[in-house]
Amino acid sequence: MTIQSPHQEPVRAEHSVPEGSSSSLLGDASTLTRELRATVHAQLELAELETRLAARTVIHMLALAVGIAVLLVGAWLTLVGAAVLALMNQGVSPMLAMLAATAVNLVAAVFVYMSLRRHGASLGWPVTLRSLKPKATEPKTRSEP
Q1: Looking at the whole model, is its pTM more than 0.85?
Q2: CB distance 13 to 2 below 8 Å
Q3: Number of C-alpha atoms within 13 angstroms, CB side, residue 43?
Q4: Rounded to 5 degrees, what are φ and ψ at 21?
Q5: 72/70 Cα distance (integer angstroms)
Q6: N or C: which end of the chain has fewer CB within 10 A?
């Protein structure tokens, strides 16, 4: 194939490209591919390490939360026991004092349950899901020309 200019001699296309440039282009592409793979590998390795750290941190936080829960339950039981003893010192029978403490615990549990139910309604991204649903389109009236 020849490329001709109106004022010049015909020039062969294979001579217009410097020798070795196609291999240089392939070399550049190969180098770019290797560098891209290395960058992606480094990013994935960093994400893996951070995920492991996050998992360990969550496990540690959960263990601490369980410890706090055990301490709070112990404190609550001590408080209820003190209330029962106070009622007994006021002349209330031990059985009635224990029933009163149980009733207070059950009422508190019902309030906590209702609060959980109320908060649970916002789980699942209801507003986001509603915004993603296609809106009902109005029937298009067809205008005749």
Answers
A1: no
A2: yes
A3: 6
A4: -70, -35
A5: 5
A6: C
pLDDT tens profile 5-60: 555 555 444 444 455 556 788 888 899 999 999 999 999 999 999 999 999 999 99
Q: From residue 22, how far is each of 12, 13, 17, 30 by CA, in Å?
A: 17, 13, 9, 12
Tell me which amino acid residue 7 is: H
User: CA–CA distance from 3 to each of 7, 16, 21, 27, 104 (Å)?
Assistant: 12, 9, 19, 28, 98
Nearest to 30 by CA among 19, 42, 22: 22
Report the C-alpha gap between 108 and 101 in whole angstroms: 11
Residues listed for the chain: 145
pLDDT at 63 over 80: yes
